[in-house]
Amino acid sequence: MEPRRKFVACDICKRSYDESVLLQNSDNNFYCKDCFKQKLCSSRKLCDSDDIKKSKDVEKSKREPSKSRKLIPNPDIYIQNVNAATELHRNHSLTSVMSLSKKPLQCPKDECNKYISIGTLEFHFKTEHKDVPVICPNLDARCASKFYLRDIRYCVVQCIALLKIEDFKPDTSGISYNSAQDPKPLMILMCTRIAVVHTEEGNEVERDRECRMTPEQECFGDGDRIIVWVASNVATNLSYTVAVSTIDREIRQKYFGPVLTLNENPKNLCRDGKCLILTHIHCRGMSENGAQPLALDVVIHGPD
What CATH number corresponds to the domain at position 156? Predict the structure, then answer.
């Protein structure tokens, strides 16, 4: 008696075949030979396409190594509000530029070579240069004082006073201003004496003579210049007027210009005319050869 044959349908084409001629997988699915070949070929093509795509990605990453090293190559896809992020980045860049400009500066006081930050300039003067007064005027207010021209030395920058503007309001248009991190400008009224040999190009001869009031010797040599200017610890859009006059106000020399920054070269300021310049004729005549004090007035003007 012949064994009874069992017929099973192919899971793809649904045709009935003898179970002995069908192919069975681990999931107990049956396939005929034709359907199995088609499925095998299609799976191979799919694997081959995936391998080709992966190989292309590898070659592309090799050609662009800088992009593959980024931790987040496309960070914009994680930001919901791209415009707000762009504005934040712009403000942060401007703040960074402002911070980079605040590098340490050298103290302008004579015989002090310390480097300090712009935010600690006032504290530095109050603790180490107590002889320099700190004046707190308002904008467009006159600060009056007296000084002797004979006390101004050659090629030595001398600080007459610190000017701390009380009603200063920074211009915050287009920049991010932080009152805690961005200090108010602190201006210094400075002066020095320049001899004629110091103004000649290429001559760096240092001259520092003591002033002795004798009939045979003039306190101010021919070609000597005394310059006075105002400089700030940070760049500003402020201007100033400085005037030197006799006590009776009969003779007066005045200068108007923008507030400069600290550590400017006095010889360049004198050469370019960016300060108040008193020639030896002014010094001898106005101060009676250094014997009489002169009135010194300075006014800090706000932006136009």
Answer: 2.60.210.10
In tens, the pLDDT along 196-206 reads 776 554 444 44
Say yes or no to pLDDT of 229 above 90.
yes
Does pTM top 0.70 for this prediction? no
pLDDT in tens, 281-303: 999 999 988 889 999 999 999 88
**Type and span of the H or E element at 176:** none
CA distance 80 to 85: 9
Assigned domain for 86 exists = no
Of 288, 241, 239, nearest to 260 by C-alpha is 239
On whether residue 90 sits in a domain, the answer given is no
β pairing state of 115-116 and 105-106: antiparallel
Distance between CA atoms of residues 15 and 128, nearest Å: 104
Residue 71 CA: distances (Å) to CA of 74, 92, 107: 9, 21, 44
- Is residue 55 situated within a structural domain? no
Q: The tokens of 267 are what?
A: 């010889």
Task: Domain of residue 234: give its range.
Answer: 132-301
| Total structural domains within the chain | 1
